Amino acid sequence: MTIPYTEDTDMKDRIMVIFTGGTIGSRMSGNVIDVHQDTRYELLEQYSRLEDSRPFEMDTLQPLQVLSENMTPDNWLELLAALDQMDRSPYAGIIITHGSDTVPYTAAMLSYTASHYGLPIVLVASNQPLGHPRSNGLRNFAAAVDFIADADIPGVYVSFENERGDHAIYLGTRITEALPFNDQFDSPYGVPFGRVVDGIFVPDQHEVHPEVAELRAVREPAADLRRVRFSTKVMYIRPFPGLNYALYDFRSARPDAVLHGVYHSATASSFTSERYSSSITGFAAYCREHGVPLYVAPAKGQGSALYRSADEFMRAGILGLPKIGMEAALVKLMLAYGTCDTEEERSAFLGRNIFYEHHEGGSW
Question: What's the pTM value of the predicted model, to 2 decimals?
């Protein structure tokens, strides 16, 4: 479907819209929400009827159609193949419609593999199906179009309206999972990269955000797309009081790596209980015995003050991934352990700040 372009402009007049399913591509039948083929046309038709719609021609692709909770690394490879094989030269930008459950992970994946394409790639999700009166899907799509048209900043982003009605734009590596009860996304420092206000992109001036000029700089590919694979043997552990590490038994299935989360103060329990395996340092020793690297994220930056427990587990040989959110860290590990052939190559990849996943300049 196309929305006719009628104005003279120096900017490219086309946007590629890639549909992948998710809530924004779903319909409700009774009390069941599921993906539906026709919703892609509904979204574009609804957008074309807006008084302030932009006069872009919209081309479409649909390489996959899944509810995002069912998104897999194989689906990521399908999406990457579609992006890599298309002729991107006619387009001002690319919009990818995606389910809200896993959009932070897909956004991080694209940030590591497609942020060098030289045009904005904006993921758009919805809190409800398009036909629902509370759905923000159309507004999120409209804000993505406005961002492409007004900002013209290459890279990977997510457009999602928050509960205050702000049309937030997040960097692809700096968006955290939505909360279950209010469907709200966040970013590690609590501020998005910017907002779309009356069709104009307004960057947030927080100290951790990159300058727009940095984002416009030419970037080299971080990985050879012909070699890109994602390990499905990366384990994630979240700390909580009573976490018993004895429940993790590597004898039947050995992970490639373990990512361990931390509390907000960059800590995890180093207490040794007499009743159960409670210490992360003890778990680190178990991982070493089985040849499994243990990472923590986000780790404090070099020179930052640490609580004693954090100092203890860092001294125990646990590998810190500094200043990076969990979602971005997990995807980066999956990519590193799926693609890199050597430990040296993996270490260099994990240490590289590919698309601002490392929050430089902040207090962490």
Answer: 0.91
Task: Report, as ranges of residue numbers, the positions in the chain whose pLDDT lies below 70.
Answer: 1-11, 22-40, 302-310, 364
Predicted pLDDT of residue 13: 93
Position 356 in a domain: no
> Total domain count for the chain?
2
Q: Are residues 202 and 243 in the same domain?
A: no
Q: Which of 6, 9, 23, 281 is catalytic?
A: 23
23-48 CB burial, b ≥16 within 10 A, e <16: bbbbbeeeeeeebbeebbebbbebbe
Catalytic status, residue 72: no
CATH number, position 250: 3.40.50.40
* Residue found under tokens 């809190």: 127
Tell me, yes or no, whether 7 lies in a domain.
no
pLDDT in tens, 159-197: 999 999 999 999 999 999 999 999 899 999 999 999 999
